[in-house]
Description:
mainly alpha; globular; two-stranded antiparallel sheet; Hypothetical Protein Ta1238, Chain: A
Amino acid sequence: MRLYTKSGDKGKTSLIGGRVEKDNIRVEAYGTIDEANSFIGKAVAELKEQEKLFADIIQDLEKIQHELFDCGTELSNVTEKRPYTLTEEPIEYMEKRIDEMIDEAPKLERFILPGGAQAAATLHLARTVTRRAERQIVSLMKAEEASPIPLKYMNRLSDYLFAAARVINARLEVPDVEYARSARVFRGTNKK
């Protein structure tokens, strides 16, 4: 099997049900999801250095990586013959995990700077790329028909990645750095 096909040498790529220019908003959206997935993979590799401490987060992130491929598949589907397959179940699971992580992390009242431990910083990168993918999906949905689930999934994923980054820092006893000029913006986000 060859890795290269040469079919994209003229600036077009295949979707499920058609071909488009490589800079099409649909391709931009699922390409950005792939970028977020790569940062999540990097975070998993970093967390595996302390696998026992982060087994739950590693398991979540590997599950999320598969789901991001599902999101990309949904966005690349331009045929009515193939039904959408992504469901709300992964979103509900992430909401449950976000609630658990909010309870584990230190109390949050102000904006924090992205960073901390290496894996936490990588998840903050993944979070910002996820937000970009979310914006691109909104643009896509204004222009064409697309499944609504990837948008909701990416919105929840950015929250999950923020919560997970904070828990990683907490477990490693690396304090979050508050944004110096932040007003008190979070109220009742956790019990601590």
